[in-house]
């Protein structure tokens, strides 16, 4: 496994498209402006409503809008480098980014040794095109041979560890490949509801959205309506109706992200819209829940009676503090606070983000004591933010003494070492790949 991951611009729980990572000995981004793309031997199979060429165009447009698409080797501009792709294979954005970041390379399917992609200079195009297009069985001599495992395995944006996707496409495998794309779009490290409850039902809804040509922004907009509805319902004491709106919103927040990724749809507006909603609304839900309670909630701490207003400020401060820690931690290296060590992955399941807090509110409503839910959210927010602050300080100490931090998921032997069980749980979300 490699030690560095590919960063992505996220949508919701981590959607978007990877940005090529500079590696030693590769051509800098300025030279890639003259790169052409040629797709050979395109498959007629459509996955999630996209044909091979359209999927590749969307993926590569997000990586580098300056890429020039050509129809044949004969239309190649002079002195241009070329990314050659076999359209009968399914690639993910990390594989494409890895190829664009290198010169004089050919990507090999490790199952049969076939050349399926190459990034080469003008003098090597004809030979490389013959190999990638299937006219030649042997990769051109002089090119560096790469397998998917030779590219970045750890994906920080999705908090998962898996080799970049490379799969042959056939009509018989269409449903299997759609499930593979969906599973690869799912974060490995997230809260317990998103990881263990939402994958299968969300996949069914993503299928419907793709079939009906619904866009991720459509889904996000409905989520925003539900955010406002839950605020009003909580404020007026309609707890179960508010919880229904809240849970449905969190479900759609999973759907819009996966829909964006499997259909390769993203926009700056959608990215900002979705992130703004996710970032801002949770403390409003908790405060409006608290405002509905009569008499107002108070908590006695070490002989000091904290009134409702003080609890609201503590709750908001704990929430904001936790998000600040999450934002600062990546400055210490190539990982987030939840991907640094195995403990952090388990902690992410229950840390006081929206879904775990909704569990506390739901339990209190079912028990007939909604005030318990507000108190529990305040206490749990303070405790988990305290843990995050401790982890930030520990990370800072490790950074000062040992250099930039890296995720345990990117370490050699992580899959078979002392944390093998944790690796199996968090390297991906297995239930997302189900049939």
TrEMBL record:
<comment type="similarity">
    <text>Belongs to the CDP-alcohol phosphatidyltransferase class-I family.</text>
</comment>
<keyword id="KW-0812">Transmembrane</keyword>
<dbReference type="GO" id="GO:0016780">
    <property type="term" value="F:phosphotransferase activity, for other substituted phosphate groups"/>
</dbReference>
<dbReference type="InterPro" id="IPR000462">
    <property type="entry name" value="CDP-OH_P_trans"/>
</dbReference>
<feature type="transmembrane region" description="Helical">
    <location>
        <begin position="284"/>
        <end position="304"/>
    </location>
</feature>
<dbReference type="GO" id="GO:0008654">
    <property type="term" value="P:phospholipid biosynthetic process"/>
</dbReference>
<keyword id="KW-0472">Membrane</keyword>
<dbReference type="Pfam" id="PF01066">
    <property type="entry name" value="CDP-OH_P_transf"/>
</dbReference>
<dbReference type="GO" id="GO:0016020">
    <property type="term" value="C:membrane"/>
</dbReference>
<protein>
    <submittedName>
        <fullName>CDP-alcohol phosphatidyltransferase family protein</fullName>
    </submittedName>
</protein>
<dbReference type="InterPro" id="IPR043130">
    <property type="entry name" value="CDP-OH_PTrfase_TM_dom"/>
</dbReference>
<feature type="transmembrane region" description="Helical">
    <location>
        <begin position="311"/>
        <end position="332"/>
    </location>
</feature>
<keyword id="KW-1133">Transmembrane helix</keyword>
<dbReference type="InterPro" id="IPR048254">
    <property type="entry name" value="CDP_ALCOHOL_P_TRANSF_CS"/>
</dbReference>
<feature type="transmembrane region" description="Helical">
    <location>
        <begin position="221"/>
        <end position="241"/>
    </location>
</feature>
<feature type="transmembrane region" description="Helical">
    <location>
        <begin position="372"/>
        <end position="393"/>
    </location>
</feature>
<feature type="region of interest" description="Disordered">
    <location>
        <begin position="1"/>
        <end position="28"/>
    </location>
</feature>
<keyword id="KW-0808">Transferase</keyword>
């Amino acid at each position: 496994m490699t030690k560095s991951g590919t960063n992505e611009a996220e949508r919701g729980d981590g959607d978007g498209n990877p940005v090529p990572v500079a590696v030693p000995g590769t051509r800098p981004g300025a030279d890639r402006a003259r790169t052409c793309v040629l797709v050979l031997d395109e498959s007629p199979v459509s996955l999630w409503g996209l044909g091979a060429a359209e999927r590749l165009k969307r993926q590569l447009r997000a990586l580098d809008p300056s890429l020039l698409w050509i129809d044949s080797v004969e239309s190649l501009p002079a002195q241009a480098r070329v990314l050659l792709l076999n359209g009968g294979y399914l690639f993910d954005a990390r594989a494409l980014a890895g190829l664009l970041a290198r010169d004089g390379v050919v990507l090999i399917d490790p199952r049969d040794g076939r050349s399926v992609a190459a990034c080469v200079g003008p003098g090597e195009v004809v030979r490389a095109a013959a190999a990638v297009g299937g006219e030649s069985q042997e990769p051109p001599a002089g090119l560096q041979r790469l397998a998917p495992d030779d590219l970045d395995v750890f994906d920080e944006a999705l908090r998962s560890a898996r080799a970049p996707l490379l799969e042959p496409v056939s009509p018989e495998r269409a449903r299997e490949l759609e499930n593979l794309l969906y599973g690869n779009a799912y974060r490995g490290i997230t809260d317990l509801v998103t990881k263990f409850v939402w994958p299968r039902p969300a996949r069914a809804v993503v299928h419907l959205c793709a079939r009906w040509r619904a866009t991720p922004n459509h889904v996000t907009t409905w989520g925003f309506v539900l955010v406002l509805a839950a605020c009003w319902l909580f404020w007026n004491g309609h707890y179960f109706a508010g919880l229904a709106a809240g849970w449905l919103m969190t479900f759609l927040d999973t759907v819009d992200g996966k829909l964006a990724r499997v259909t390769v749809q993203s926009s700056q507006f959608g990215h900002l819209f979705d992130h703004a909603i996710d970032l801002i609304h949770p403390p409003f839900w908790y405060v409006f829940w608290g405002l509905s309670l009569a008499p107002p909630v108070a908590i006695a701490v070490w002989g000091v009676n904290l009134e409702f207003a003080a609890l609201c400020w503590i709750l908001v401060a704990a929430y904001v503090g936790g998000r600040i820690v999450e934002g600062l931690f990546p400055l210490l290296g190539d990982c987030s606070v939840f991907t640094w060590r195995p403990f952090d992955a388990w902690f992410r399941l229950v840390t006081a983000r929206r879904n775990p807090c909704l569990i506390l509110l739901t339990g209190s409503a079912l028990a007939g004591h909604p005030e318990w839910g507000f108190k529990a959210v305040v206490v749990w927010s303070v405790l988990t933010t305290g843990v995050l602050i401790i982890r930030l300080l520990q990370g800072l100490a490790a950074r000062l003494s040992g250099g930039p931090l890296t995720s345990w998921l990117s370490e050699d032997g992580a899959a078979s070492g002392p944390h093998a069980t944790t690796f199996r749980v968090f390297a991906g979300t297995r239930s997302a790949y189900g049939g």
